[in-house]
Amino acid sequence: MKSRISTDIWLALFFLVSAILIVFVWIPMDTGTGLVEEVRRKFEIGDALAPTVAGIVIFIGAVLLLLKPSHNNSLSSRNLSWMVTLLGFFTVSLILMRYAGPLAASWTELGYRPLRATPPWNYIGFLFGGTLMVGGLTSLVKRQLSFKDFTIGFVASLFIALLFDLPFDDLILPPNGDV
After folding, report:
1. What does the pLDDT read at residue 54?
2. CA 120 to CA 116: how far, in whole Å?
3. Residue closest to 8 by CA, chosen among 75, 90, 56, 57
4. What 3 state SS string does the chain have?
5. pLDDT of residue 96
6. N or C: at which end does the chain have fewer Cβ atoms within 10 angstroms?
7. What is the pLDDT of residue 179?
8. Structure pTM?
């Protein structure tokens, strides 16, 4: 009897190979700097940091899928509605992340552009969008709104923002660099 490999295993293998190619082939060939650069005795984020983090996240997801593939390989209307709901949450969270800072600064005389790299202005969009994303998705999965989930979302978003902002003086938190 011939054993079939599930679609989850194929999907995991595809993303495992993709993540390895991203981190070890594409990023070194495409970026001019490393993960972190020391310039004039100051550390700056290199061009390779963000795509490397994304490649590592893809790799971890692929390994987790390899460890526990599902046995149900069909795509139902319930699956599709779940994906549309997730897409909606991500879209609203990213729009809030992009426009909350400029909207808050529109009340000032200077506007947002001169303030985008100074606390608290640089954290506004990241914290609002991140809090909604983490708290909202957690509430969605639990099917219950909870203040605790949004508090955890706020703390997690603040931790991530500080983790990237404090060690690097020249870093502008996303999406502030585009504003």
Report:
1. 92
2. 9
3. 75
4. CCCCCCHHHHHHHHHHHHHHHHHHHHHHHHCCCCCEEEECCEEEECCCHHHHHHHHHHHHHHHHHHHCCCCCCCCCHHHHHHHHHHHHHHHHHHHHHHHHHHHHHCCCCCCCHHHCCCCCHHHHHHHHHHHHHHHHHHHHHHCCCCHHHHHHHHHHHHHHHHHHHCCCCCCCCCCHHHC
5. 92
6. N
7. 52
8. 0.64
Contact 130, 156 (CB under 8 A): yes
Share of the chain above pLDDT 90, in %: 41
Q: With 60 as the cut, is the pLDDT of residue 34 above it? A: yes
Q: Which amino acid is at 149?
A: D
The predicted model gives 23-33 an average pLDDT of 87
Reported as a single tens digit per residue, the pLDDT across 88-141 is 999 999 999 988 888 888 887 777 777 777 778 888 888 999 999 999 999 999
User: Are 50 and 171 a contacting pair, CB within 8 Å?
Assistant: no
Tokens representing 154 are: 């706020």
